[in-house]
């Protein structure tokens, strides 16, 4: 194994893979270091398995809205088997094969910065025992170590062995009584998935006033109504003060701040994630081990002499979304290659623009929450001259064809001065496929006058675009 490469990537999740593949395709030598499974959190414990669990419930919702179709009994064992298929049985041979076919070298172990352009590789999960190896990068080191779940310091919680996204998405036996701490994306998605798969008593304890507080308020309200209709209990403005689990694997008692006591079989903690920086050696190069890595718009770490360190994905704390990590990886890879070859490094594709505009996100609940750009509150806080328009998606002809009781709402946030969209939110079953058109409009800054000539097909739900423009006054 050589110990000198043009570029060293620490982390083989989606962002790390994309960066490594793109750099290797340009002819540079690349080493990729991964301590767990190649493919990372998204492939095995987050995006992919969670959506595999939610998809049957999504289809069940579709069936119940369309007269003439009968919903059969949900076969939980087959849903879990499909989940296992989607994560390749937690075997990363396919991902390893892709990395190697792309021309990169994969090293099993834990990568840690040792000094300028130096990375120490320590034995990690699944790696053969032995001494560490030190690698040197000629041009750049890329940190793509992702993030990890935050376990709040609630007395007794850690000792009770709570679930995180990993245990929830990898569930083997659905608990009958489930307590979910949190009101964000993971909390809502996994509460819906596990309740739909058989958790008879599912309770969400939410510190804030409602669910999904980072998007438009009506989105959280609609998801809360849907969860409640399905039998999920939501306790807003509530906290878990103490947890007891006397017998490992046994019943859990949770004491709430409002005085209520809950007996449950499992607790899922979904209170956010933290950049995985604690054990990657940042202090060896003058950075803080306990904070995300600050970067410029080329993904180069700030505060590191000679500019050889880059950070992409969750580890830089900008946008904890897989697709945004992959976007940052493309920016980063192209910049590294250009700088290594002495070519221009300031071409349009070599700077991050999307994060400042507002990254697209889909929350795969029923209804789905799909948003891009700024919310109304964000736009007003930033000083824009804002006007908003909303429209009920069930009133569109295409929406009425989606079935009885189909409901949804679209909202556009408009910059009145420039007459362009600052943000768009759709909340409706199956709305995710509408999002990319909104992403294009927001990212490019398409004027409302031009959008008026983008004619939506009839009868589709996308006619909501026309209705939003008409409501605006076009």
TrEMBL record:
FAD binds at residues 51, 111, 145-147, 314. The keyword Disulfide bond does not apply. The keyword Ribonucleoprotein does not apply. Residues 5-322 form the FAD/NAD(P)-binding domain. Binds 1 FAD per subunit. InterPro entries: Class-I_Pyr_Nuc-Dis_Oxidored (IPR050151), FAD/NAD-bd_sf (IPR036188), FAD/NAD-binding_dom (IPR023753), FAD/NAD-linked_Rdtase_dimer_sf (IPR016156), Pyr_nuc-diS_OxRdtase (IPR001100), Pyr_nucl-diS_OxRdtase_dimer (IPR004099). One of its GO terms (biological process) is 2-oxoglutarate metabolic process. SUPFAM superfamilies: FAD/NAD(P)-binding domain, FAD/NAD-linked reductases, dimerisation (C-terminal) domain. NAD(+) binds at residues 182-189, 272. Disulfide bonds join 42-47. GO terms for molecular function: dihydrolipoyl dehydrogenase (NADH) activity; flavin adenine dinucleotide binding. Its cofactor is FAD. Keywords: FAD, Flavoprotein, NAD, Nucleotide-binding. Residues 360-465 form the Pyridine nucleotide-disulphide oxidoreductase dimerisation domain. Belongs to the class-I pyridine nucleotide-disulfide oxidoreductase family. This is Oxidoreductase. It comes from Planotetraspora kaengkrachanensis.
């Amino acid at each position: 194994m050589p110990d000198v490469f043009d570029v060293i990537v620490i982390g083989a999740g989606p962002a790390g893979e994309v960066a490594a593949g793109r750099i290797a395709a340009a002819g540079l030598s690349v080493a990729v270091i991964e301590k767990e499974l190649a493919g990372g959190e998204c492939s095995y414990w987050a995006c992919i398995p969670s959506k595999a669990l939610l998809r049957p419930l999504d289809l069940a919702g579709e069936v119940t809205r369309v007269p003439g179709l009968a919903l059969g009994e949900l076969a939980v064992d087959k849903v879990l088997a499909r989940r296992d298929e989607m994560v390749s049985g937690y075997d990363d041979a396919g991902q390893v094969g892709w990395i190697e076919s792309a021309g990169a070298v994969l090293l099993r172990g834990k990568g840690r910065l040792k000094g300028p352009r130096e990375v120490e590789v320590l034995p990690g999960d699944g790696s053969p025992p032995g001494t560490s190896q030190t690698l040197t990068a000629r041009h750049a080191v890329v940190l793509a170590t992702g993030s990890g779940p935050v376990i709040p310091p609630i007395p007794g919680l850690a000792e009770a062995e709570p679930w995180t996204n990993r245990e929830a998405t990898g569930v083997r036996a659905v608990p009958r009584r489930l307590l979910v701490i949190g009101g964000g994306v993971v909390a809502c998605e996994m509460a819906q998935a596990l309740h739909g798969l058989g958790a008879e008593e599912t309770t969400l304890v939410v510190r804030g006033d409602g669910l999904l507080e980072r998007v438009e308020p009506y989105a959280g309200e609609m998801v809360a109504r849907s969860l409640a209709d399905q039998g999920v209990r939501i306790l807003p403005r509530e906290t878990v003060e103490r947890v007891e689990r006397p017998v490992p694997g046994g019943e859990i008692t949770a004491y709430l701040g409002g005085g209520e006591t809950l007996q449950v079989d499992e607790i899922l903690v979904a209170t956010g994630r933290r950049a995985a920086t604690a054990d990657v050696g940042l202090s060896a190069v003058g950075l803080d081990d306990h904070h995300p890595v600050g970067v410029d718009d080329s993904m180069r770490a700030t505060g590191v002499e000679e500019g050889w360190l880059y950070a992409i994905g969750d580890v830089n704390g900008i946008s904890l979304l897989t697709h945004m990590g992959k976007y940052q990886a493309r920016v980063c890879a192209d910049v590294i290659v250009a700088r290594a070859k002495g070519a221009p490094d300031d071409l349009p594709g070599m700077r991050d623009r999307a994060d400042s505009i507002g990254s697209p996100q889909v929350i795969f609940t029923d209804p789905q929450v799909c948003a891009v750009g700024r919310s109304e509150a964000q736009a007003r806080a930033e000083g824009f001259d804002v006007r908003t328009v909303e429209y009920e998606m069930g009133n569109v002809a295409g929406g009425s064809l989606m079935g009885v009781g189909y409901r949804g709402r679209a909202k556009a946030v408009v910059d009145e001065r420039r007459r362009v969209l600052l943000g768009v939110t759709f909340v409706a079953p199956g709305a995710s496929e509408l999002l990319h058109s909104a992403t294009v409009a927001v990212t490019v800054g398409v004027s409302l006058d031009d959008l008026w000539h983008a004619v939506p097909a009839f009868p589709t739900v996308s006619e909501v675009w026309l209705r939003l423009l008409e409501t605006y006054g076009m």
